[in-house]
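Entry:
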Amino acid sequence: MRRQIVRVLIVDDYEPWRRFIRLTLLAYEKLQVIGEASDGLEAVEKAHQLQPDLILLDISLPKLNGIEAARRIREVSPSSRILFVSENRPGEIAEEALRSGGSGYVLKSDVHSELVPAINAVLEGKQFICSSLMDDVSALMNEQTAALTHRHEVAFYPDDVSVVDGYARFIEHALSTGKAVIVAVTESHRASLISKLQANGVNVAAAIEKGSYVALNAGDAVATLTVNGTPDPVLCAKVIGDVVTLAAQGVRGEHARVMVCGEIAPTMLSKGNAEGAIELEHLWDEITRDYGVHTHCGYIWSASLRGESNAIFEKICAEHSAVCGRIPL
């Protein structure tokens, strides 16, 4: 969270909900509610008058819906960050909300666990997609994004089963849309992931033979990319570049793209090497940017990510372009 006071405008047509959000934010001394609005036109007017740092914006508003209100707010208060807080679940609506100028999207049913993390993310200039919608929204945005667009997202999962499920959905989308995928997971997750994919009808063997599915062992990758526990920039540039180039050879077409899901840095964190994990995330982001790679990093929520300051969590998020949900403390 920023150290200075963050001025917040709450926009929702249901007064009890505005009161609930206002009371929720009172627990955080750096968040100051400076105004409320009950319809879209009033939201635009108050954004213009108050120039808030953050706007919590519903979509289903009278007079002017939240998406159109966001477009107008971008014109009258361009420095305000917009976080949509809505119960509209279709991925297409969430995707359009983000394209209208929103920095994040949280379902009202997930507010208890994801509102404050979402606020943290958008104030740091990151995109936040709540965990309930991240698969749908990510898939939609992937389809509409140019082939060489770089994306480096992070998701936090409660346990091994959920992280395998998350990777499986990511891989299925990559292969079904003609992209290559690099899968860098631990040995303990590898077998479960392949079983999950096969159960979902994915022909993993065929993808491996074609070269569009490149499997890496996360533990081996850590050893290859580091020297005395520290990621080596030269080694990382060479090895990561070679692997991405190899995967790219397994796909053809105008929108051919390489996607990566894995847990190389998370493996380092699980071994107690937080500094190494954060440095590797930084190097990975720099190196893959030139290749237009879409990376999905999966962390299992653990004791190392808890703590009063959440410093490690915040540093990991800072190295990513998007944060997809967070497990509650």
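The longest strand covers residues 31-37.
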